[in-house]
Records
---
Amino acid sequence: MVCLGNICRSPIAEGVMRHKVKQHGLDWDIESAGTESYHIGEAPHRFSQKICKEHGIDISGQRAKKFTADSFAAYDKIYAMATDVYEEIKQIGGAKADMSKVSLFLNELSFDFAQGDKKKDDRPLSVPDPYYGGEEGYVAVYEMIDKTCDAIIRKYRQFEN
Ligand code: 4NP
């Protein structure tokens, strides 16, 4: 799960996905990272921690780390939280970048994201960056991440066993 700072979006995605993977008894290792260095070593943003805690998920122990080119060998699947992150992942990977492993996270949502008030092709490609906004942005981001993690589990759990 990769975003820019690894303090707002991808820590939520790591926490939510870990939680769901455990609930489903799946043997998947979940990690998150950021493409930028500004926040390395920091705990998740307080609103990311708060919204996760409200859903029974403790992400307070996570610490921000940077996405590296070696992640392409270490992981089977890499999710970019946003289109700018996707481009950064490609850049950082350089010769090691196996972009067949990388997907835009929201592309895993197989239903009409806006549920009625928008056409399917208008659905957002990027989880919005909540860093410069208020708490409500983190609530919206959580909802997107939660639904998308469910979709990813539905898609890939069939390959288990
Ligand atoms: P994130 O949010 O990528 O979801 O962790 C951001 C956090 C920090 C910055 C940008 C985005 N920043 O510019 O410092």
Note: Residues 2-156 form a domain with the Rossmann fold fold (CATH 3.40.50.2300).
---
Amino acid sequence: MAIRNIVKVGDPILNKKSRKVEKFDERLWLLLDDMKETMYSAGGVGLAAVQVGVLRRAVVLDCGTPDMSDYLELINPEIISKEGEQREMEGCLSLPGESGTTVRPAVVKIKCQDRNGKWCVYKAQGLKARCFCHEIDHLDGVLFTSKVIKEDIQ
Ligand code: NI
């Protein structure tokens, strides 16, 4: 595994739409392993492949606690339902030092594939629901700053 460079705002790749993952092979597994290591080393809760310069629909996230990890890999994720709303502060490893309040669904249900191509469904609320939405936005070239309703002073 290796830590990869995180692409920062200003790089036009962050505004591009990522392509579907079609091959569930060793190259994908290496990418996911590197993304996992990169996310943890940067202290983030989520990372999309585009943030390490790879335009594929792959995400790693961990909205757990230091005591209890909740590591997940989402390949080709799609939101299948959302309920309610939450207004919370958000940030992004590609926009260091920036944060703002966004409106996100309170509860989100997604379907996605795992690293072997098997389809799964996850339902989340709170931070994890925000994280699902934030990372899926990355796959469509959307940054959280386009959804900020209030700048938060740090
Ligand atoms: Ni982000």
Note: The mean pLDDT is 96.
